[in-house]
C-alpha cells in the first residue's frame, strides 16, 4: 500500500514530533536553577513562559503562509532550525544572565514550536491519506515520548550539576543536526511552494479566515476544546487535586501524574489499529465517554485504586481527540494547513487558557467540584464527534 520512500517520510515526521516534544520540555525541569542563576522571582518566570504562549499562537497563524511559500520539506526543516537557533540564544542569554534576551528567545522558541506543530500535522495527515492507515495517534505518542525524554535529560543534567545553559546549547546543536539529517525524508514535491499570483495568496488568507465560520471545523474545535482542556488541567491540577482533595501523599500524587502521562502515551501508541477498525467517530465517542466516567470516578471515589482507575480513564479520554482532530481537519476541505491551523488554535487556546479558568472556578466551588466542568466538556465532545467523519469514507477507514 505504500510506495518506496513513504515509510521514510512517515518516520521522518514521527521523529519531528519527537523533537518537538523534546524542545518543549527543555527548560521546564531547569526552571529552579534558571530562577536562581538570574535572581528573578516567580512572577518574572511566569512572564517569560507567557512569551512561549504568545510565540506559539503567532506561529500557528504564520504556519499556512510559511507552508505555501517554502513547501513541506523546507518549511519543516526551517521550523526545526529556527527552534534550534532560539534555544542557542536562550543558552547564550543564560550565560550572559540577560533576562531581556532570554524573553526574546522564549518568544522565538514558541513561534517555532507553534509553526512546527501545524506543519508536522499537515504532513502526518498527508502520509495517512497515502498509506491508508491511521498513523496520527502514533505520531502524537512520539511527541509525548519526546516530552518524557526531554524532561529526563533535564533531570539528569540537574543531578549531574550541568548548568542549564550548557544543556540547552547542547540540545540546540542536536536538534539542528537532526533537522538537517532528516530533511530529505520529506518528499520534495510535497506541499510545493506557492507560485500563484499574490492575489491568490490573498484569497487563501480569506479562505483561512472563513475557516473560523466553517461549522464542521468549529465542531471539530468543540472536541479539541474538551480534550485539550482535560489534558491541560491534568498537567496543572491533577497532583494538587490528588494531594488536597483526595488526601494522598505528595509521592502518590506525583505517581498519579506519571500514570496519566503513561496512559495517554500508551493509548496513542496502540490506538491506530483501533481507529482503523472502529472509525474516527466511534473512537472519539468511546474515548470521551471513558474520559467522562474517569472524571466522575476521580471526583467522587475515595479509594486510592479507584481514583487511579479514574486517572487512567481520564488519560484515555484526552488521548485521541487532538491527533484525530488534526486528521479530520486536514481532509475536511481545500488548503489543509489553513484548516489545521484553525483547529490547532482552538486546541492550543484550551490547553493554555483552560487551566487558569479551572483555577478561577476552583476559588468559588473548590478544586474537585470545578472538575465537573470537564465532565460537561467531555459530553460536548461526545456529541460533536460526528464532525470527525471522513469526507470520503473508504473500506479501510469506516466513518462510524
- H/E element sequence: HHHHHHHHHHHHHHH
Structural class: mainly alpha
Number of helices: 15
Report the strand count.
Answer: 0
The percent of residues in helical segments reads over 70%
Euclidean distance between termini CA atoms: 23 Å
Sheet with the most strands, sense and barrel status: none
Regions with pLDDT < 50 over 5+ consecutive residues?
195-199, 393-400
Beta-sheet strand percentage? Answer: under 5%
Write a concise synopsis of the structure shown.
The chain is an all-alpha fold and 400 residues long.
State the main characteristics.
400 residues; mainly alpha; 15 helices; globular; disordered C terminus
Task: Describe the protein in words.
- This protein has about 400 residues and is mainly alpha-helical.
- About 80% of the residues lie in helices and about 0% in strands.
- It contains 15 helices and no strands.
- The chain has helices at about 5-25, 30-40, 40-95, 100-130, 135-160, 165-180, 200-210, 215-245, 250-280, 280-300, 305-320, 320-330, 335-365, 365-370, 370-385.
- α8 runs antiparallel to α15 and α12 packs antiparallel against α13.
- The longest helix is centred in the first third of the chain and has 55 residues, at about 40-95.
Amino acid at each position: 500500500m505504500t510506495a518506496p520512500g513513504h515509510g521514510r517520510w512517515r518516520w521522518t515526521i514521527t521523529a519531528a514530533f519527537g523533537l518537538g516534544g523534546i524542545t518543549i520540555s527543555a527548560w521546564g525541569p531547569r526552571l529552579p536553577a534558571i530562577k536562581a542563576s538570574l535572581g528573578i522571582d516567580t512572577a518574572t518566570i511566569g512572564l517569560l513562559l507567557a512569551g512561549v504562549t504568545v510565540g506559539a499562537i503567532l506561529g500557528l497563524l504564520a504556519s499556512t503562509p510559511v507552508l505555501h511559500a517554502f513547501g513541506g520539506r523546507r518549511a519543516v526543516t526551517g521550523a526545526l532550525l529556527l527552534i534550534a537557533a532560539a534555544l542557542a540564544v536562550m543558552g547564550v542569554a543564560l550565560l550572559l544572565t540577560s533576562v531581556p534576551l532570554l524573553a526574546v528567545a522564549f518568544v522565538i522558541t514558541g513561534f517555532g514550536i507553534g509553526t512546527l506543530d501545524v506543519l508536522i500535522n499537515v504532513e502526518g495527515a498527508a502520509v495517512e491519506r497515502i498509506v491508508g492507515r491511521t498513523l496520527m495517534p502514533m505520531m502524537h505518542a512520539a511527541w509525548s515520548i519526546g516530552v518524557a525524554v526531554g524532561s529526563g535529560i533535564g533531570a539528569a543534567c540537574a543531578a549531574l550539576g550541568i548548568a542549564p545553559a550548557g544543556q540547552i546549547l547542547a540540545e540546540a546543536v542536536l536538534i539542528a543536526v537532526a533537522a538537517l539529517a532528516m530533511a530529505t525524508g520529506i518528499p520534495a514535491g510535497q506541499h510545493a511552494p506557492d507560485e500563484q499570483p499574490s492575489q491568490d495568496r490573498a484569497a487563501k488568507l480569506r479562505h483561512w479566515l472563513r475557516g473560523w465560520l466553517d461549522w464542521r471545523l468549529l465542531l471539530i474545535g468543540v472536541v479539541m476544546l474538551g480534550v485539550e482542556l482535560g489534558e491541560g488541567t491534568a498537567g496543572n491540577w491533577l497532583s494538587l487535586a490528588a494531594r488536597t482533595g483526595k488526601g494522598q501523599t505528595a509521592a502518590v500524587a506525583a505517581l498519579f501524574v506519571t500514570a496519566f502521562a503513561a496512559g495517554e502515551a500508551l493509548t496513542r501508541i496502540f490506538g491506530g489499529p483501533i481507529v482503523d477498525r472502529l472509525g474516527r467517530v466511534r473512537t472519539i465517542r468511546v474515548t470521551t465517554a471513558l474520559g467522562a466516567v474517569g472524571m466522575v470516578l476521580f471526583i467522587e471515589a475515595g479509594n486510592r485504586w479507584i481514583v487511579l482507575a479514574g486517572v487512567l480513564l481520564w488519560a484515555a479520554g484526552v488521548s485521541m481527540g487532538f491527533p484525530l482532530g488534526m486528521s479530520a481537519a486536514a481532509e475536511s476541505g481545500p488548503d489543509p494547513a489553513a484548516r489545521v491551523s484553525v483547529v490547532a488554535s482552538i486546541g492550543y487556546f484550551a490547553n493554555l487558557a483552560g487551566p487558569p479558568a479551572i483555577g478561577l472556578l476552583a476559588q468559588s466551588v473548590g478544586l474537585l467540584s470545578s472538575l465537573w466542568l470537564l465532565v460537561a466538556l467531555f459530553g460536548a465532545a461526545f456529541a460533536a464527534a460526528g464532525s470527525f467523519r471522513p469526507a470520503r469514507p473508504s473500506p479501510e477507514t469506516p466513518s462510524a
